[in-house]
Amino acid sequence: MSSIAYQPMRDFATEWDNGYPSAVFSGIVALSGGYHASIEDSRVGSYSVVRVDDKAPPGTWPRNLSAAIDMSKNTSDMVKEFWRVWRVFSNPADPRRVFFNAYDGWDGSGDAVRLDFVTGGQSWADRTHTWHGHLEWRRRHVTNPASYVAARSMLLTDENVAAYLVRIGAAPAPTPTGNVPGTRTLRVIDGAGMLHGEDVLFVQKYIGWRCGTPDGWYGNGTANGVRWYQGMRGIQVDGEVGPVTWTHLLQRAVTY
Q1: Is 103 within 8 Å of 40 (Cβ atoms)?
Q2: Taking Cα atoms as reference points, which of 49, 47, 85 lies closest to residue 65?
Q3: Measured between alpha carbons, how far is 160 from 195 in angstroms, rounded to an integer?
Q4: Is residue 1 scored above 70 in pLDDT?
Q5: Pairing mode, if any, of strands 122-124 and 113-116?
Q6: Where are the domains positioned within the chain?
C-alpha cells in the first residue's frame, strides 16, 4: 500500500505557494489517516473514506492518491485566504463548492475553524490551523482538472461566481455597455455588481500582467495592478481608476 500525490495537485500546491508572499508549502502526503493519506492507507472507517464522494469502491476513482494540501503562512495572508474561502463556502449556490470536502483555517480571531463543504457546517479546528490552511478535495475529484480551476479561483483570486462562470464557459460574457475608457470611475464592488466592460479591459491590457488575466472584470487583482501603476506614476494609490489615473493612462485630460 502507498499514498502518492497526483501531479496536478503537486502543481497546484506550487501555485498556492507562489500565490501568497509568506506562503510555505507544508504538506501533501501522509501514510496514515485523513485526506493526506490514500484510501489504501486509511484505516477502515476513517472519516476520509466514508462519504459518498470518497468511497472506492463503489466509486471507481484511484485508491492510492492523497487528497489534501497544507500551506503555512503569516497572519495577514492566513486571514486573506480564509475570507476568500468563506465567500465560496457561505454561498450554497456557488458551483466551486462541489469539488471540496473541507477547509481548515483562521479568520484572525479566536480559534481556527473547519468549514465542511459537504454539510455546510462549521466546527473548531486544531490550533495549528491558525498558521496553516488545509484544503481537502472530495476524493472523486482529485483527478478532475476542473477541481484545480475551482481551487485556483477560490484561493488565489477574488472573482465572484458570475466571473468564474464566464471564465469556465458556463455562462456568456456580459455584453459591454458602452463604457468608453475615461468616462467613469472603476473600483472594486463587492457582490454581484462587479464592474465589467471595455474600459476595464483597456486598463487590464494597458497595465499588463500585474492585473492578472485580462477578462473585463474589475476585481481585486485588477485593483492591485492599478495600485502598482499609481505608485509608479507618483499619484494617489487607492486602487481606483478615477479622472487623475485616467489622465495618466490616456495621456489626455479627463474630467466627468
Answers
A1: no
A2: 49
A3: 11
A4: no
A5: antiparallel
A6: 7-156, 191-250
Summarised one tens digit per residue, pLDDT across range 123-170 is 999 999 999 999 999 999 999 999 999 999 999 987 888 888 877 888
pTM of the model: 0.71
| Sequential DSSP letters for 195-215 | -BSHHHHHHHHHH-GGG-S--
- CA distances from residue 87 to 90, 115, 189, 203 in whole angstroms, order as listed: 5, 11, 14, 26
Q: Could you give the CA distance from residue 105 to residue 122 in angstroms, rounded to a whole number?
A: 11
Closest by CA to 198, choosing from 182, 213, 216, is: 216
Architecture of the domain delimited by 191-250: Orthogonal Bundle (1.10)
- Which candidate, 199, 193, 162, places its Cα nearest to that of 178? 199
In the sheet with 132-137, reading across from the earlier edge strand, the strands are 24-27, 68-72, 132-137, 100-105, 113-116, 122-124
User: And the C-alpha cell for 58?
Assistant: 463503489
Q: How confident is the model at residue 186 (pLDDT cuts 50, 70, 90)?
A: very high
Integer CA distances (angstroms), 152 to 119, 144, 180, in order: 22, 13, 31
235 within 8 A of 245, measured Cβ to Cβ: yes
Compute the half-sphere exposure of residue 125: CA atoms within 13 Å on the CB side of its CA: 21
Report the b/e string of 200-211 with b at 16+ CB within 10 A.
bbbbbeebeeeb
Radius of gyration of the chain (CA): 21
* Contact (CB, 8 A) for 99 and 143: no
**Cβ neighbours of 16 (radius 10 Å):** 22
